[in-house]
Amino acid sequence: MIILTSSSTWNENEQILHSLKDDILVTNVDGIILKVSEVTGKIYGVDSESLIGKSVYDLERQGLFTPILTPMVVKENKKITFVQTTNKGKKLLVTGIPVYNEKGELYRIVSYSHDITELAEYKDFLITMEEEMERVKSELDLLRSKQLMDAGIIANSEDMKKVISTALQLSEVDVNALILGESGVGKSLLAKFIHNKSHRNKGPFIEVNCGAIPDSLFEAELFGYESGAFTGAHQKGKVGLIELSNGGTLFLDEIGELPLHHQVKVLKVIQEKQFYRVGGTKPIKVDFRLISATNKDLNTAIQEKRFREDLYFRLNVVPVTIPPLRKRTEDIVPLIHLLLQQFEEKYNREKKLDEAVVHHLLHYEWKGNVRELINIMERLVVLSPSTLISVEQLPDHLKKGPTLSPPSVDSDKTLKELLEETEKQILLKARKKYITTIRIANALGTSQPSIVRKLKKYKIY
Ligand SMILES: Nc1ncnc2c1ncn2[C@@H]1O[C@H](COP(=O)(O)OP(=O)(O)OP(=O)(O)O)[C@@H](O)[C@H]1O
């Protein structure tokens, strides 16, 4: 608090006031200007002396500055800071300090300011940029979701959005990519998506299921053969899958199933981008982009000497992991709608899902991931006798809901993580049984807000 002890002190300060390089203005409680520093006049483009004796209310009316500080300090009876705009369009950060006389009465208001025009401009610029970025981001989201819709891919969850964003980056370069994830999560779909978005999209997309080709036919299938290369071979010979992928993408699915004795041949063609047909003597050059996929843990396979480490490093330049469906429940409802629509069209039927069915589908474990969901949805559309698909039509294993079993202590998880896992299982079961958060809270003897928080934490919908 500032208290003036005598008016002479006030006069003594006058010289100091003029020596300051800051804008300082002193008024009485009625807003009459008593003193100003020289800088003040410059800021408003007037002679400082001409301001003396004028009322700040009049000056505001004349447009010199707005709003005025004096009444605010008088009203609040304390130090106040705010932004003032001047007749020159400047932005000033103005602070007003109340000054009291010996009786403790409000006597003067001293204000000083800092020019923050540039700062305010930067702030405006930042806000405009942020708005622009938001606009571009939502446009991009829209564009991406359209791209995904065209490709028939659902990516509603944050995890899946990240996968798609990596896939789009990958589509721009010819780097080797390894797609990891459980069976049925969409590895082949993603490989096709990368190919379709790449500059090779006019070329072929050749999918080789490494686990499905009989061992004895593997070389002939992959590398092709010359006429009469072996008994049973076609007269004219045959072009292999690798040769067919020229100019396009070679997708080696189930790469973890590739027998060890074939791995070195595959490694060679990946490295050299040339090979010999079976029975051939001429090297054949080939230009493909390689994507591989597996649901196996290749690191364990390497440790167990079932998979070559050098091949693994070649394949795994950029890994992309698609999380299991149970870990991205936000994708389940949009997938259900997409599939319902597809099967309605396919079987020319109109169906609706009971809400309880959706709940069961949301809280199922989906060990077979999207592929399993597709099967269930097709079955429901085909077999449900009425328009409304109800819980009774669900297969028994889906009606039961998740079973509660304590998590294994052999894992490297901490006690906190194990407890959270158990809590999540309990909540999944409760959500399925009681549906509403109030009923869950009652059943579990806790508050509804706490249940809402926990459901959000575990992404249980
Ligand atoms: N995000 C998704 N949106 C829409 N459909 C999907 C999605 N993910 C997977 N699918 C569909 O699920 C089915 C299984 O997908 P896909 O064959 O790509 O799985 P995968 O991981 O390659 O399986 P596997 O390991 O058994 O080869 C396909 O019909 C695919 O179109």
TrEMBL record:
Coiled coil: 119-146
InterPro entries: AAA+_ATPase, AAA_lid_NorR, Homeodomain-like_sf, HTH_TyrR, P-loop_NTPase, PAS, PAS-assoc_C, PAS-like_dom_sf
BP GO annotations: regulation of DNA-templated transcription
Gene Ontology terms, MF aspect: ATP binding; DNA binding
Signal peptide stretch: none
Domain Sigma-54 factor interaction: 153-382
Residue ranges occupied by any PAC domain in the UniProt entry: 76-128
One Pfam family from the record: HTH_50
Keywords in alphabetical order: Aromatic hydrocarbons catabolism, ATP-binding, Coiled coil, Nucleotide-binding
Domain PAS: 9-59
UniProt xrefs under PANTHER family: C4-DICARBOXYLATE TRANSPORT TRANSCRIPTIONAL REGULATORY PROTEIN DCTD, TRANSCRIPTIONAL REGULATORY PROTEIN
Name of the protein in its database record: HTH-type transcriptional regulatory protein TyrR
The organism of origin for this protein: Fictibacillus arsenicus
